[in-house]
Specification:
alpha/beta, Rossmann fold, 6-stranded parallel sheet, 7 helices
């Protein structure tokens, strides 16, 4: 599997913006992968509330930052050479826009382009409980080739901290994009006693 050279990371207003921020940090630390960041207006509010990070702090974590309002940005075109896109977290509003091809801002447009070009799209959907509308939108994305990846903690890893949970989840998302970030040990097996 070839390691991607360019990824789009989008952050929406759902809770869990730490996943998008951690993705950017890991990709920067790994090196060799150019990141293009898009943050919705609600995403900026949630970043400030949940992480107390400034826009400048967040922008410094990406190679390129595009306004969610700039529908004419490079990432809005299928000719933009890109290996995939991760929306972390993905609000139900953004999920619905992508599922129905609305392309009403740069996040949903870039996701639409990612799907039509048959590139990898991962949506870290954040909501609970899920309504039938949410589930149908997730089905539409899956049928179109996208990956629905709710950030559900894996307790078999015996996490000692919230960072452990975040790192394991981010590591699994990156695995799906061909990037082995070595953020958590791989599952081997449970030794059964006789």
């Amino acid at each position: 599997m070839n390691t991607p050279k360019r990824l789009i990371v989008a952050i929406t207003g759902a809770t869990g913006v730490v996943f998008g921020i951690r993705l950017l940090e890991i990709l920067r630390d790994l090196g060799g992968i150019e990141t293009h960041l898009i943050v919705s207006d609600a995403g900026w509010l949630t970043i400030e509330h949940e992480l107390q990070l400034s826009k400048a702090d967040v922008r410094a974590k990406a190679d390129m930052v595009h306004s969610a309002k700039n529908i004419g940005a490079a990432v809005s075109s299928g000719s933009f050479d890109c290996d995939g896109m991760i929306v972390a977290p993905c609000s139900m509003k953004t999920l619905a826009a992508i599922a129905h091809g609305l392309s009403d801002n740069l996040i949903s447009r870039a996701a639409d382009v990612t799907l039509k070009e048959r590139r990898k799209l991962t949506l870290m959907v954040r909501e609970t409980p899920l309504s039938l509308i949410h589930l149908r939108n997730m089905t539409a994305i899956t049928e179109a080739g996208g990956i629905i990846f709710p950030p559900v903690p894996a307790f078999y890893q015996m996490p000692n901290s919230l960072d452990d949970v975040v790192n394991h989840t981010v590591g699994r998302v990156l695995d799906g994009h061909g990037i082995d970030a070595k953020l958590a040990p791989r599952w081997t097996s449970i030794n059964e006693s006789s």
